[in-house]
From TrEMBL:
Residues 56-160 form the TonB-dependent receptor plug domain. InterPro entries: Beta-barrel_TonB (IPR000531), Beta-barrel_TonB_sf (IPR036942), Plug_dom (IPR012910), Plug_dom_sf (IPR037066), TonB-dep_rcpt-like (IPR039426). This is TonB-dependent receptor. It is a multi-pass membrane protein. SUPFAM superfamilies: Porins.
Length: 657
């Protein structure tokens, strides 16, 4: 029962507060495994040429595996909620469905990558965070703020999230069992095997819950493999994964409380990287998604079935020479859909998992990109300038365009001192409409096949400070958007309900300021310091006044966070091996939503605290944690209340052999 877990965990968490005054500073040096990296020395990917974090002229949040293990989180959506520049709008918790929004954009404008592979779903951005790997098999998560079309291609409109996996260089077995409120259960297994020149990582997980309110139960299972094979002259990286989510979807897409959805994804990629001075890295990848959506659960009369294939080839070449490093690359991507409702009329094709239904709609498009980038370091000055030449068959089909577009950009920084750097960036980006934008036809929503691609130019100026465990940054940006797509009210039904359709808007300008700071006291003070670390981040956004002309008709564009602040604290407790992590988040969302019963309602600001107590003993970790510790009522999306206090407890084993 909920009370049983919640009261127990709440007692344990609040008990830790009372022990702080009696805490001993003595702590075993590897109690939480002090991070094996210094952030300044981490190579991150904001360009075609990887650079050290300390040399970047971009704002990147890097979350390592050890940080992830300390957090009171069981899923990607929970982790991303702790990043101030990310507005993670959840319909279903624990990765059931979360929309990734960066710097006041929309969920379709953020790019999600898995080891550099584009995972965005052309059917709808609601599936972009649907990954075939469990959080506990991840090596790192990078969040890039700002546009990156010249680096990652179309759809990196406002930013990108790159999830990285990596086989270990040792034999290791990992197991995790977790239980919590609402009959929540999670089981995770991971094996790393090393033999000669090969390294293998296999991950599988299963989690389920009866749901925190009516019709919110779910099941999720995944299996994932990442292998690295050293051969003469280079290394092959092979990834393969499958994930299956079956979940109730109360009020996800309308006023039905009996909605249900099942989504399955199959993924594969193969990359080769040579060992030469000139780096050549070709890659092929493929993603297939099956989506079965029901407006009325167990009643097929209003079901939608979709099959989406995304396949591509990517090539990146890095050439070092006396004037820096030059990258030349190309990307070819196919996006196709078969559907019962999205696309143009086609000859019927049987749905693989239900031979009583046929796909009667479909569409496809090809995207071709050429990349050129040059990176140079001249004393204290660094610059990365590049351009993407893009051709898209969908854009070419529009009589007003030949399908070709050019997207340039430049990032520059200057080192004011050994620890302080000023930077500025000017980048362009684009986003193609999804198949839902183009073709959807439902009870209260109608697609628009005449939509044009979104475009934006973003200017940013900021400062970065890095020294001996202290990292901080502040930046201000302005994004000029054109042809921005938003679902707006165009009519009403006979019953008086709104009918929405996506439209292009000529101009929309977003302004923002972001601030990030982290203090690693085990570097600043002592490796055994009682206080491990503090992270603080904040983001403040405002659209130009003319954007308000959309008024309450806007469904997504004006539904952004005016402000968000996050605070994370990790510290030791009074027993050897015992530590706690606290995550505090404050959000204030612009605008409101149309409540099914009350009509127009403004979003209310809210404050949420999550907490976790870890006990490490030899190769085992025992923990208790809770999200929304104070049981706050709040909404990420209108008409979908988020869970109250949700307590969990678990045991992990991490064994080398």
């Amino acid at each position: 029962m909920k009370k049983h877990y919640s009261n127990l965990v709440a007692f344990l968490l609040f008990f830790t507060i009372g022990t702080l005054g009696f805490a001993q500073e003595k702590m075993e040096q590897d109690s939480s495994k002090i991070s094996s990296y210094y952030l300044e020395e981490v190579a991150v990917s904001s360009g075609r040429v990887p650079q050290l974090y300390s040399e970047q002229a971009r704002i990147i949040t890097y979350i390592g595996a050890e940080d992830i293990q300390k957090m009171p989180a069981q899923s990607f959506d929970q982790i991303l909620k702790y990043v101030a520049s990310v507005d993670l709008k959840s319909r279903g918790p624990l990765d059931i469905q979360g929309d990734v929004i960066i710097r006041g954009g929309t969920f379709d404008q953020s790019l999600v990558l898995l080891n550099g592979v584009n995972m965005n779903n052309p059917q709808t951005g609601h599936h972009n965070l649907f990954l075939p790997v469990d959080m506990e098999a991840v090596n790192a998560i990078e969040v890039l703020e700002g546009p990156a079309s010249r680096v990652f291609g179309a759809n990196a409109f406002t930013g990108a999230v790159n999830v990285q996996t990596k086989p270990m260089d040792k034999n290791n077995i990992y197991a995790h069992a977790m239980f919590g409120d609402f009959n929540l259960q999670k089981y995770v297994g991971r094996v790393n095997l090393t033999s000669g020149k090969t390294r293998h990582m296999i991950n599988a997980s299963y989690n389920k819950s009866d749901g925190y309110t009516k019709n919110t139960a779910f099941e999720r299972a995944n299996a994932y493999y990442h292998g690295a094979y050293d051969v003469k002259g280079g290394t092959f990286d092979l990834t393969a994964g499958i994930v299956d989510k079956d979940f109730d979807a109360n009020a996800f897409y309308g006023d039905s409380d009996t909605q249900h959805e099942r989504v399955r994804l199959m993924h594969g990629s193969l990359r080769y990287t040579n060992n030469g001075k000139i780096k050549v890295s070709p890659m092929v990848y493929w993603n297939r998604t099956y989506d079965h959506y029901q407006w009325w659960k167990d009643n097929p009369v209003a079901d939608n079935h979709h099959k989406v294939d995304v396949a591509g080839f990517n090539l990146n070449t890095i050439i070092p020479w006396k004037l820096g490093k030059t990258s030349i690359g190309a990307d070819v991507k196919y996006e196709g859909i078969l559907s019962t409702s999205l696309g143009k009329d086609i000859n019927p094709i049987e749905v693989p998992y239900d031979n009583s239904v046929t796909y009667k709609k479909g569409d496809e498009r090809f995207n071709y990109s050429l990349f050129l980038e040059h990176n140079i370091i001249l004393g204290k000055f660094t610059a990365s300038a590049g351009i993407m030449l893009n051709y898209n068959t969908q854009i070419a089909a529009d009589s007003s365009s030949n399908g070709f577009n050019v997207f340039p950009g430049i990032d520059m920084s200057y080192e004011l001192s050994n620890s302080l750097r000023v930077f500025t960036t000017l980048n362009t980006s684009m986003r193609l409409p999804t198949y839902t934008d183009l073709y959807y036809a439902g009870r209260n929503n109608i697609g628009n096949p005449n939509l044009k691609e979104e475009r934006a130019t973003t200017l940013e100026l900021g400062l970065k400070y890095e020294k001996n465990g202290v990292n901080a940054s502040v930046s201000a940006f302005r994004r000029w958007g054109t042809n921005i797509i938003d679902w707006v009210q165009v009519d009403t039904t006979a019953e008086g309900k709104s009918i929405f359709q996506p439209q292009n808007y000529n101009e929309l300008t977003m302004n923002g300021i972001t601030f990030n700071a982290s203090l690693d006291f085990r570097r600043i003070l002592h490796p055994e310091a009682f206080l491990h670390s503090i992270q603080f981040s904040a983001a403040y956004l405002a659209a130009d006044q003319n954007a308000n002309d959309l008024g309450t008709n806007s469904r997504y564009v004006l539904d952004y966070l005016n402000s968000k602040e996050t605070l994370g604290i990790t510290h030791s407790l009074f027993v050897k091996g015992l530590s706690a992590n606290w995550q505090l988040t404050h959000q204030n969302r612009n605008g409101g939503y149309n409540d099914f019963e009350k009509g127009e309602v403004d979003y209310k600001p809210f404050f949420v605290m999550d907490a976790k107590v870890n006990y490490n003993i030899k190769r085992f970790n025992i923990y208790v944690e809770a999200s929304n510790l104070f049981d706050v009522e709040y909404h990420d999306i209108g008409n979908i209340p988020m869970p109250g206090r949700w307590a969990r407890a678990g045991v992990k084993m991490d064994l080398d052999f």
